[in-house]
Amino acid sequence: MAQYTRVSGSVGLITLQSPPVNALSAAVRQGIVDLMQRALSEPEVKSVVICGQNGIFCGGADIKEFGGQMSGPPLIPMIHAIEAASKPVVAAIEGIALGGGLELALGCHYRIAHSKARVGLPEVTLGLLPGAGGSQRLPRLIGVPAALDLITTGRHVTAAEALKFGLVDQITDHNTVNVAVKFAQRVADQPLDARRISTHPCLCPSDVAVLFEEVMQRVRRTARGAIAPIACVQAVRAAATLPYNQGMERERELMATLFTSGQARALQYFFFAQRAVGRWSMPSGARWDTSKPRPVHKAAVIGLGTMGRGITVALAQAGFSVVAVETQEKQLMEAKQAISGMLERGAKRRGVAPALDKINYGRNIQSVADVDLVIEAVFEDMALKKKVFQQLSAVCKPSTFLCSNTSGLDIDQLACQTRNPELVVGMHFFAPAHVMKLLEVVYGPKSSPLAVATAMQLGKKIGKVSVAVGNCRGFVGNRMLKPYLEQALFLLEEGATPEFVDQVLEEFGFAMGVFRMSDLSGLDVGWKVRLADGLAMPDPTMGQPTRLRQGRRYSPLGDLLCEQGRFGQKTGRGWYQYDKPGSQVAKPDPWLHSFLDEYRARHALVAHRIDHQEVLERCLYSMINEGFRILEDGIAAGPEDIDVIYVFGYSWPRHRGGPMFYAATVGLNKVLERLEHYYQAHPDVPSLQPCHLLRKLVASGSPPIQKWREVIKKVRSQL
Ligand SMILES: CCC/C=C/C(=O)SCCNC(=O)CCNC(=O)[C@H](O)C(C)(C)COP(=O)([O-])OP(=O)([O-])OC[C@H]1O[C@@H](n2cnc3c(N)ncnc32)[C@H](O)[C@@H]1OP(=O)([O-])[O-]
């Protein structure tokens, strides 16, 4: 909807009204078309201002409409009509002008923005391009290099940056609509020809062909298979090389291909999934909208290794007072230096002062006595963590929330060490903790909704996407990673090489294949866990065959490398070889290939040819199967939670929506059928056995992913 008022006698004010972000729904578009006609037909009206209600100009096209039949007046002719209007039209931009919202503003003759407004063309993040003339008008207004940057990244820019680009004509700290109305009065009689951006020549640098070549190469390298960024470059190239009308035609063709693509569907699903995880619920029935968080003013971090340092930086940067505790003097000194460096570099990038004074360092756990919330980040060792929780419980105020940054240990066992187990939750950060967006907030059986709500809100305040998950070994992310890693090792035993497995996974869109990734994070990390679990190094006197442990198939390949001191990048050797310890350039290692040959010979394994499809299906479907088990067990509330965890925490390609969305795209019956096939071939690998929920969903006719929760509820109630 849109509302019309006449202000100051001669200005027609059109206000977009479609909460929460004034998206350009069919009703809003119809409103704009009708009200523009009205303003142009009223002789008293000399100029027009377009604004949005509640301090928000416009969040762009209504993404909810994309999935269905589009109705109402289309955007392109609507914007053309505004640009062609005989009276000046001024956009009053408050809050945001994004996507179609900015394209609407580009159709206006003038743009006035509030100093706190942000503008951008984020269509690429939804698998689209600025297809309402944005790809053609923006380079004409701000030049090809800046337009390429904004359109291919989708980044939001501040009003100040927009003014520098010439994207807006004026910024103000005052009431934007009032300023725009006065401005509209001033320009009422001015000629409009030069203000119609579509008539401008495109501003190209002299070496424009080289620029496009370079940008295209960079975009192809970083897109990881996403098609929209490439189409964005092609559309801007059309603006630079073709007359406006032909450029618009090219924009339309490119948009048509993107609009119906699976990638656009996946990215739009993901947009809503990100928002859905904020509406968390627990099996007890506690929910985001009925559980109030308690404010946190002062927090503490215990243990300043890699994770503790990152968490301290994240908290300080967000303005929290932090007590950072490390009991070892040397470690404390090193941590202090590292944290200051991280804060200074971050502050320089963002053009602000480093938040060094937010942190108080200490060696004594007593120094956390008055904090509101503690995040323990000591070594991943249950005995040590239990001790820390006992100490914290004795030292802290009774109301202090006690959180653990464990990546998979039992939260309940930690809660049991404290006086107030209901205030204990897991806060599982991902390395580097001040950069990675994901936070798993883990509730145990005793965790209160208050503690979950508080941890979720804290996560949001420090810029994380927080997902509430239940308590089980590895929680959601690492639990699903286990069968994926396991399959990758089995594939090596059966004849694949690390290079081939990684190549297939990287072609799929992962930033790094599984072996390059484990070389980066260190093979010794998992080895220590397997040793603690009694999985690595079985006692040979027990007569256990090496490739069978605890009743199931086991690959000791990773353990064997660790026994040789091959821990990955940090030792210069792992699944690959590196020029020197710490180097990041992975090269195939002939030693490893002979080692695999010898290993196979020792275990009478005959290497067979493993193809692309088998690598993908076994690695991904076993992981997806575990995802269905997680849903069945109630550890994640819905498929969106799993998908958000995988995209933000495990570099799952966003344009594939996440593992559960991918399963829906492939077809649940196909996933089931292939799992059955592989389970038959490997009956000693339980993770390949299709789980009950997957079978149930297929039996229910493979409903769309948005309907899975209904089936999940039924399955859970039958258990
Ligand atoms: C076709 C021609 C070419 C044009 C293409 C386009 O314009 S493509 C579009 C280009 N535009 C974009 O890509 C902008 C996408 N939006 C954003 O980036 C952010 O929402 C924000 C920065 C506008 C506000 O951030 P924030 O943290 O303050 O708030 P929040 O994020 O929690 O959202 C609040 C609620 O609004 C909802 N909603 C939001 N936008 C839209 C929409 N366009 N549509 C529908 N709904 C939308 C959102 O789902 C949520 O609903 P819920 O869960 O409460 O039911």
From TrEMBL:
Catalytic activity: (3S)-hydroxydecanoyl-CoA = (2E)-decenoyl-CoA + H2O; (3Z)-hexenoyl-CoA = (2E)-hexenoyl-CoA; (3E,5Z)-tetradecadienoyl-CoA = (2E,5Z)-tetradecadienoyl-CoA; (2E)-hexadecenedioyl-CoA + H2O = (3S)-hydroxyhexadecanedioyl-CoA
One GO term describing the cellular component: peroxisome
A Pfam family the protein falls into: ECH_1
Claim: Transport is one of the keywords in the record: no
Pathway stated in the Swiss-Prot or TrEMBL entry: Lipid metabolism; fatty acid beta-oxidation
GO molecular function: (3S)-3-hydroxyacyl-CoA dehydrogenase (NAD+) activity; delta(3)-delta(2)-enoyl-CoA isomerase activity; enoyl-CoA hydratase activity; NAD+ binding
Subcellular location: Peroxisome
Domain 3-hydroxyacyl-CoA dehydrogenase C-terminal: start-end pairs: 474-578, 615-702
Chief place where the protein resides: other
GO biological process, one term: fatty acid beta-oxidation
Documented EC number(s): 1.1.1.35, 4.2.1.17, 5.3.3.8
Keywords linked to the UniProt accession: Fatty acid metabolism, Isomerase, Lipid metabolism, Lyase, Multifunctional enzyme, NAD, Oxidoreductase, Peroxisome
Residue ranges annotated for the 3-hydroxyacyl-CoA dehydrogenase NAD binding domain, each copy included: 298-471
SUPFAM superfamilies named in the record: 6-phosphogluconate dehydrogenase C-terminal domain-like, ClpP/crotonase, NAD(P)-binding Rossmann-fold domains
Subunit structure comment from the entry: Monomer.
Family: Belongs to the enoyl-CoA hydratase/isomerase family.
Protein name according to UniProt: Peroxisomal bifunctional enzyme
Source organism of this protein record: Pundamilia nyererei
